[in-house]
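Saturday, quiet lab. Running sequence design on the structure tokens for the scaffold JK sent over.
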């Protein structure tokens, strides 16, 4: 493991903890659920169940917070981590790119793996972003329950989450997928072998473009119960930091007091992402905003996630 190094201004204690593994980014094999799944109970019936962290329970962020607060009042506080789904557990981008290359062409003649590594998000592929039909297709897939049931997994994610559970509580799966996809998402998690836990999806009324800002706000609200987040998307980190020009009460503290485990980015990507984040933070502070983050730990692969989460298990589980 490389030495920890700070890359952003003071008040951001950002750690780059990178494993010296042979492959800095592990791409998963194609895999999908069985063709004839057993139907998962509808979200409406799940929401009528008593609150439980040991069952697959579809709920809202507000209901999760209420349940965690009640447990704390009852003398049974629960603290732990939350897990993102897309590009952290499910390799959604690869699945989409496989389909899009067939439907809309592949002028660079890249494999889905190489295209994903180059652009990260399907909407960032220039010849798809400029194609109205491709953008329409992506928009439809985001609302397609069937699509969620056919996604491949990220290599090592099932085993990694099982290892995490031996040391910390997985409090919730927290995703920007719309709530209307919760049933298919819960089915996929169970079918792929992920442990049962609360599932929180983005409210349907929150636009896709505001999903990462919604997630950042939820994480801040759920602290200290959720003390760590495993997520691939640096846009969530950026959402913790207000724009310098945004009007805000100087007394408001922005950021996340927990630990953000940034998954799936190699060393060079991490340096660039965190450098930009540091610059954004500095600009916000110069504009009079108060921004505090505890640490960001970069984990290129699931073995890295396991190493760095378990090494902080006592802190992440402290009640």
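Result came back. Writing it out in full:
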């Amino acid at each position: 493991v490389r030495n920890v190094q700070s890359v952003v201004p003071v008040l951001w204690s950002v750690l780059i903890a990178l494993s010296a593994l042979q492959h800095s980014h592990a791409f998963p094999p194609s895999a999908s659920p069985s063709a004839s799944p057993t139907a998962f109970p509808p979200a409406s019936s799940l929401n009528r169940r008593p609150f439980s962290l040991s069952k697959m329970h579809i709920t809202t962020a507000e209901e999760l917070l209420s349940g965690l607060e009640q447990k704390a009042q009852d003398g049974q506080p629960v603290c732990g981590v939350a897990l993102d789904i897309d590009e952290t557990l499910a390799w959604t981008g690869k699945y989409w790119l496989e389909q899009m290359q067939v439907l809309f062409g592949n002028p660079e003649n890249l494999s889905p793996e190489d295209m994903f590594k180059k652009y990260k998000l399907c909407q960032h592929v220039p010849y798809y972003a400029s194609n109205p039909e491709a953008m329409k297709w992506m928009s439809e897939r985001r609302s397609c329950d069937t699509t969620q049931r056919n996604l491949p997994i990220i290599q090592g994610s099932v085993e990694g989450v099982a290892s995490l559970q031996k040391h910390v509580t997985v409090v919730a799966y927290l995703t920007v997928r719309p709530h209307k996809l919760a049933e298919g998402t819960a089915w996929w998690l169970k079918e792929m072998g992920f442990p049962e836990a609360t599932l929180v999806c983005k409210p349907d009324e929150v636009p896709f473009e505001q999903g990462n800002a919604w997630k950042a706000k939820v994480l801040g609200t759920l602290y200290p119960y959720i003390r760590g987040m495993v997520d691939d998307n640096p846009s969530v980190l950026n959402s913790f930091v207000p724009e310098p020009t945004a009007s805000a009460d100087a007394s408001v503290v922005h950021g996340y007091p927990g630990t953000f485990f940034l998954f799936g980015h190699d060393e060079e990507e991490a340096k660039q992402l965190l450098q930009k984040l540091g610059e954004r933070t500095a600009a916000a502070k110069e504009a009079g905003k108060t921004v505090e983050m505890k640490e960001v730990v970069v984990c290129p692969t699931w073995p890295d996630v396991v190493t760095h989460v378990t090494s902080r298990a006592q802190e992440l589980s402290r009640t």
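Notes for JK: The longest strand covers residues 169-178. Residues 1-51 have pLDDT under 50 and may be disordered. Ask whether to fix the surface positions before the next round.
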